[in-house]
Amino acid sequence: MNGDEILDIKNKIIKANFIYRPNRFIAHVDIDGIETVVHVPNTGRCREILIPSCTVLLREETNPLRKTKYDLFAAYKGNKLINIDSQIPNKVVEEALKNRAILPLNSFKKIQREKIFGNSRFDFKLENDDGFEYFLEVKGVTLEGNGISSFPDAPTERGRKHLLELIEVKKALKSAGVLFLIQMDDINYFTPNDDMDKGFGEAVRLAKENGVDVFAYNCKVGENFITLKDEVKVVM
């Protein structure tokens, strides 16, 4: 692990016990015996992670205009710590790209965020010294079972459209890829979650057949940091 790639969390962090999640945006937690409403920065279901009484990590936020004081950004699933903050994957990947930690992409030195191609806005547009362009989409992964990670944990028509648009990038004689960032460690392999969204799985396979790169990387996760770790085998 390269220390330069660690994304430190500077805010105050406290532990709490999860109670329940009435909707996608908030959760009720127990902080030292006091039931408190916190923000959940992930609109996915996370049902296999956020179960009653599990230990969660809260990040204190200081914006006085917020309705909640804390963000619920990670949770323990047994002994496994999983980061569920949907804003984290792009930050982790950007640091890894800057530090040339993603070997298949280390020739692309120019890194731009949120760039449009066709009808889609992709997470990254990369360019090498010759001006050759590479569009990269990042998907944060929190779903895991028996060492197998998968995506998505809820149907995602937007995700399917992104993959189909990456095929159009390839047809335009540019390069394209999707990177599944698994927000935890100790993963054996990654696979599309066909049981949840068959259309997304079909789109991943079609993209790969059309020359779109499909990567998966896990992360080293601590209570106050997260960093890209190792490439993970993708099973289609």
What features would you highlight for this structure?
236 residues, alpha+beta, OB fold (Dihydrolipoamide Acetyltransferase, E2P), Trna Endonuclease, Chain: A, domain 1, seven-stranded mixed beta sheet, six-stranded antiparallel beta sheet, 3 helices, 17 strands, 44% strand
Shape estimate:
globular
Strand segment tally: 17
Structural class: alpha+beta
Low-pLDDT residue intervals, each spanning 5 or more residues: none
Walk across the major sheet and give the strand order.
Answer: 1-16-15-13-10-9-8
Task: Give the terminus-to-terminus CA distance.
Answer: 27 Å
Please, how many helices? 3
CATH architecture of the largest domain: 3-Layer(aba) Sandwich
- Helix-residue proportion: 10-25%
Q: What is the count of structural domains?
A: 2
Oligomer: single chain
The level-1 CATH class of the largest domain = Alpha Beta
The biggest beta sheet, please?
7 strands, mixed
Could you spell the SSE succession in H and E letters? EEEEEEEHEEEEEHEEHEEE
- The radius of gyration over CA amounts to 18 Å
Strand percentage lies at 35-45%
CATH topology-level fold name of the largest domain? Trna Endonuclease, Chain: A, domain 1
Mean pLDDT comes to: 94
Explain the overall architecture.
Helix content is 16%, strand content 44%. With 236 residues, it is α+β, with helices and mostly antiparallel strands. Helix 2 runs parallel beside helix 3 (198-209). The longest helix has 15 residues, at 157-171. It is globular, with a radius of gyration of 18 Å.
